[in-house]
Amino acid sequence: MLGAHGRDLARKVFTAPAKGLARLGVHPNHVTVAGTVATVAASVGLLATGHWTVGVVVVALVLFADSLDGTLARLQGESSEFGAFLDSTLDRIGDGAVFSSVVYWIAVSMAPSGMRTWLLIAGFITIIGAATVPYARARAESVGAEAKVGIAERTDRLLVVLVAVFLVSLGLPMWILGVGLTWVAFASTVTVIQRILAAKKELEA
User: Fold this and answer.
1) What residue numbers bound the domain in which 17 lies?
2) CATH number for the domain harbouring residue 115
3) For residue 171, what is the DSSP state?
4) Is 91 among the catalytic positions?
5) Catalytic residue (one of 66, 69, 91, 95)
6) Fewest CB atoms within 10 Å of the CB: 16, 74, 96, 188?
7) Residue 37 and residue 57: Cα distance in Å, rounded?
8) Which of 67, 62, 59, 61 is nearest to 84 (CA)?
9) Which residues contact 63 (CB under 8 A, 6 or more apart)?
């Protein structure tokens, strides 16, 4: 999956910056919070207002740096359950900000049409999926099951939407965004179903 390869590359790229932050005494949780603030600010300030080219670049850079806090924690020997909890929780905020900002622009900037309706429906399902996919896994784990299956990771879903938004910002037709949102909505729905079935199989075994 894109997410796994992306994390490996990001760890290699950000090891040096993480060492620099470690020497400065920066705590990993501060990096986590800063990344979320940057994601929300770029989403609300740029994506929601139609500045899609710059917005996608900024959000993509923050997304690529998402593993910086984890790398820093490992270097400092400060990996903790709370850090993992904080990172996962704030990821949900960042995801929601990105998807909601795109859907907001669609809702307020496009004239009523079949295209607008398609984009809004796919967008709303994508937003719901952004919260439901990780919740299904977390809830399964809370009752003693594993539900890590799924056809698309968080990074995959974000990248598909961001690439589609970027292409549209360059002048390509809006249906490209429709395809991107529809794929993410479909992948999210399938992943939730897969995790429900995986948890059911394990818990009822």
Assistant:
1) 2-203
2) 1.20.120.1760
3) T
4) yes
5) 91
6) 16
7) 16
8) 67
9) 39, 155, 158, 159, 162
Quote the CA–CA distance of 117 and 114 in Å, as a whole number: 5
75-131, pLDDT tens digit by residue? 777 777 888 899 899 999 999 999 999 999 999 999 999 999 999 999 999 999 999
Q: Is the torsion defined by CA of 11, 14, 20, 25 positive or negative?
A: negative
Tally of CB atoms within 10 A around 26: 16
Distance separating the N- and C-terminal Cα atoms of the chain: 29
DSSP tag of 67: G
d(CA 168, CA 154): 22
Cα separation, 14 vs 163, in Å, equals: 23
- Please state the domain count of the chain: 1
Task: Tokens for 148, please give them.
Answer: 């890590």
Structure tokens at 129: 């999926």
